[in-house]
Write a sequence for this structure.
């Protein structure tokens, strides 16, 4: 059964590109445009990996990580935050919130697949 | 996300530019509110997110000049929203002009044309000054130097890695078995768990890490490849390399050398330095 990834980003471009790459590699991809929408998705669906941007309206990525860690269904689910090279503080903040790791933007499709495979059970 | 061979991401450019037009318009309206003194903290966050999203997509398509300007603009906005820089009327005017220049870079990228190299330089300098930084110099592309190809026989090194994860490793979704799988992809791997610290089943917390491991890896990859495997647990778990048993050359096809150096055998017997 295909592994399921939830891609959370307020940028449709980024969601489209992440989905395109992951679907091409055989993953099932669900999308959400911010943290609140992501939590709604997680209420009805078990996912294997979550990839989330940090800066989003409604609920940012760091808050989403904290919320996910409190969900009985997804407490141990790998969560990768999308960050930029200059955002060391976001990596630290994400890790403190319970994020599994990060993907530094901009990233190549190969890098995305490599990092998702790294954490996908 | 940047384009790789085999992945045609250009199909997403149209979506990106549509999104940019919306983001620039949103930023313009929001900055106007701030200019009139009617804005709030969330408005500053909103403008930051607009510029951040434009930069993120631009990085994916390698629009370097756009990324460069957006980065400086975004940093200035970050200073404003965190209160490190005060939003005065002059600063609000600068935001308006910054958004205009950002739009110029977006339209140039869409039209696949180059703007003059000093386009928006004065605004860029003023935005950088808000953060106390000197205006960063755009990345220069180094001229293509002829590549000198050299073929070297791989050199194998045996590393011993003691991996003592922090108690919360599993709670962050990091799975040691996946790390060992990745490590095994680098060469010949032997993993020995230390179960001595396991509590009884009745005392055990399923999401707490109790076990540590000793990994012996023989690889022709550099140390940085191993660091990358443990990248996400570097802060919470402890891993260290207590014994580098020395390198030895593989054969011409890159296989492990037929002659095993004595040091490797010593390592396999678990000798510690």
């Amino acid at each position: 059964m295909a592994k399921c990834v939830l891609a959370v980003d307020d940028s449709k471009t980024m969601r489209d590109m992440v989905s395109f790459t992951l679907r091409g590699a055989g993953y099932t991809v669900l999308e959400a445009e911010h943290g609140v929408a992501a939590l709604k998705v997680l209420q009805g669906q078990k996912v294997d990996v979550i990839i989330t941007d940090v800066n989003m309206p409604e609920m940012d990525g760091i808050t989403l990580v904290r919320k996910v860690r409190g969900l009985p269904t997804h407490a141990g689910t790998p969560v990768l935050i999308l960050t930029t090279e200059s955002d060391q503080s976001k990596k630290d903040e994400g890790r403190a919130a319970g994020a599994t790791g990060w993907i530094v933007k901009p990233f190549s499709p190969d890098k995305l697949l490599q990092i998702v495979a790294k954490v996908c059970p | 996300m940047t384009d790789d061979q085999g992945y045609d991401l250009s199909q997403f450019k149209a979506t990106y530019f549509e999104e940019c037009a919306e983001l620039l318009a949103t930023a313009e309206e929001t900055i106007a509110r701030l200019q009139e003194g009617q804005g709030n903290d969330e408005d500053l966050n909103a403008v930051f997110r607009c510029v951040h999203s434009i930069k993120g997509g631009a990085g994916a398509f390698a629009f370097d000049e756009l990324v460069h300007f957006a980065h400086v603009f975004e940093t200035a906005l970050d200073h404003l929203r965190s209160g490190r820089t005060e939003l005065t009327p002059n600063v609000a005017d600068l935001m308006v002009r910054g958004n205009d220049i950002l739009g110029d870079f977006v339209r140039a990228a869409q039209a696949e044309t180059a703007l003059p190299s000093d386009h928006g330089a004065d605004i860029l300098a003023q935005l950088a000054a808000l953060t106390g930084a000197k205006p960063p110099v755009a990345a220069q592309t180094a001229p293509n130097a002829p590549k000198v190809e050299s073929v070297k026989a791989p050199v194998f090194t045996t590393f011993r890695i003691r991996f003592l994860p922090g108690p919360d490793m599993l709670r962050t979704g990091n799975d040691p078995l996946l790390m060992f799988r990745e490590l095994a992809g680098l060469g010949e791997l032997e993993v020995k768990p230390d179960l001595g610290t396991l509590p009884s089943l009745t005392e055990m917390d399923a999401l707490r890490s109790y076990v540590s491991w000793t990994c012996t890896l023989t690889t022709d990859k550099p140390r940085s490849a191993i660091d990358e495997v443990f990248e996400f647990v570097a802060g919470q778990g402890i891993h260290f390399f207590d014994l580098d048993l020395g390198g030895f050359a593989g054969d011409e096809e890159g296989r492990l050398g037929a002659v095993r150096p004595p040091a490797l055998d010593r390592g396999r017997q678990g000798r510690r330095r």
User: Anything to note?
Assistant: Chain B touches chain A through 38 residues (CB under 8 Å). The domain at 9-130 of chain B is CATH 1.20.120.160 (Four Helix Bundle (Hemerythrin (Met), subunit A)). Confidence is low (pLDDT under 50) at residues 139-143, 247-273 of chain B.
